[in-house]
Amino acid sequence: MRTRLTAVLLAALMLLAGCSGGGDDEGGDGRVTLRFQSLAWQQESVAATKDLVAEWNATRPDIRVEYVQGSWDSVHDQLLTSFEGGEAPDVIHDASDDLADFAYGGYLADLTDLLPERLKADIPPRTWETVTFGDGIYGVPFLQEPRVLIANATWLKESGVRIPTPEDPWSWAEFRTVTRQLSGDGKYGVAWPLKDPVSATLNLSLSTGGQLFHRGPDGKVTVRFEAADAVMPRTVHDQVGTDRSASPTTLGSGGSDTLPGFFGGRYAMVPLGFSYRQQIVQQAPEGFDWQVLPAPAGADGLAQGVSPQTLSIAEDSPHKKEAAAFLDFLLRPENMVRLALGDWMLPTGTEALKDPALHTAEHDWATGTALAGRLRSAPAQSVRGYPEWKDKVATPAFQEYYSGAIGLDELRRRLEEDGNLVLARYQR
């Protein structure tokens, strides 16, 4: 009787194991199932991703990939819950600026010895820096986008201002002058959508040599708001409050919120991510002529911070080698191009960036691709405590500065004094 009960219990446990989530062998036939949580959301990008998953499954019946739809709006909290509950997907789509706490917390696998040499060599070292925490690599950066100026081409042409190019961009001072020339009669040279002011400010400030976060010999990070950090935010502040060349009503807006006014002829330019071109193509009125311009350049040229989209493997996944093989397939140059075109972004791989489809004049793909070599790791990429510093200190401080409620000295004090108190709690 005891032997029969033991056999029944073992059979029941095996059945439960076969019915459980991703990562387990399915049905005891040796086939592996990997759960891949994707954050693709635009119709084209979802279709491209699902097509690639289907192609993998058609050629690798021994390793089946299950597509799971995630959401950018809730990904951090959702992943944290799944990590702590032992239910994390095997393959995780996220962004590099969301990885630090997961990497340091031991939730993500170190990919250093899992990734093929082809993939390691294809992505530039400066891009690998965005996913390197301590001595490990905790994600593969595969899509990125510069911030650019989307401009009303007709307005700029009729005004007679010099049109910048990646080879000869505007300086921040010239940009301010141009926006003054384009303004008047209730119209503005630029509309800054700064609902999230911190990311835009820090990333664009790399062009002027801004760094803000400084890591000492002991590895601890402190905030210092220096002259180079002030160039970009002071330009915005003065455009809004002094020149009246930037719309004050868009400072609390998201990028999409500015498009109706842009199409309606109220703003000559809007600084946006490169992928916003898709919305413009879909929503612009017939005959509306627009173009992509590089963001202003500073002492460090067109350098700009980015937080690429990433693919990681959960530390708890029992099939890390199989997951790495799937990543290698998904990020082959030709597949990386398909993902980039689907998301209207740039691939990180050097081979993919050579694809003729990314160098066309149509929708100004060539302008964005010309900026790829200037993209650098976002300043806050590896700073522990950055999310709290951003939410509690930097966001309200920048919002008040841009609106004119506080001056530059008070902005500096808050970022440094209040900000360093927050970061210190994460660096003991």
Give a description of the structure:
The chain has 428 residues and is of the alpha/beta class. Helix content is 42%, strand content 17%. The strands form 5 sheets. Strands 1, 2, 3, 4, 7, 15 and 16 form a 7-stranded mixed sheet that branches. Strands 9-12-8-13 form a 4-stranded mixed sheet.
What percent of residues adopt helix (DSSP H or I)? 40-55%
Tell the overall outline.
globular
Tell me about the biggest sheet? 7 strands, mixed
**Rounded mean pLDDT score:** 92
Weakly predicted, low-confidence segments: 1-24
Q: Give the radius of gyration.
A: 24 Å
Q: Calculate the terminal CA-CA distance, rounded to whole Å.
A: 59 Å
* Distinct helical segment count: 18
DSSP strand tally: 17
The portion of residues forming beta strands comes to 15-25%
Features:
about 425 residues; alpha/beta; seven-stranded mixed sheet; 18 helices; 17 strands; about 15% strand; globular; disordered N terminus
Can you give me a brief rundown of this structure?
By secondary structure, this protein is an alpha/beta fold.
Strand-helix topology:
Elements: H1 2-19, E1 25-26, E2 31-38, H2 43-59, E3 63-69, H3 75-84, E4 91-95, H4 100-104, H5 117-122, H6 125-128, E5 132-133, E6 136-137, E7 140-144, E8 147-152, H7 153-159, H8 172-181, E9 188-190, H9 197-204, E10 213-215, E11 221-223, H10 227-241, H11 259-263, E12 267-273, H12 277-283, E13 290-294, E14 304-306, E15 309-313, H13 320-330, H14 333-343, E16 346-347, H15 350-353, H16 365-370, E17 375-377, H17 386-403, H18 408-424
Parallel strand pairs: 2-3, 2-4, 9-12, 14-17
Antiparallel strand pairs: 1-2, 4-15, 5-6, 7-15, 7-16, 8-12, 8-13, 10-11
Helix pairs in contact: 2-14, 8-10, 10-17, 17-18
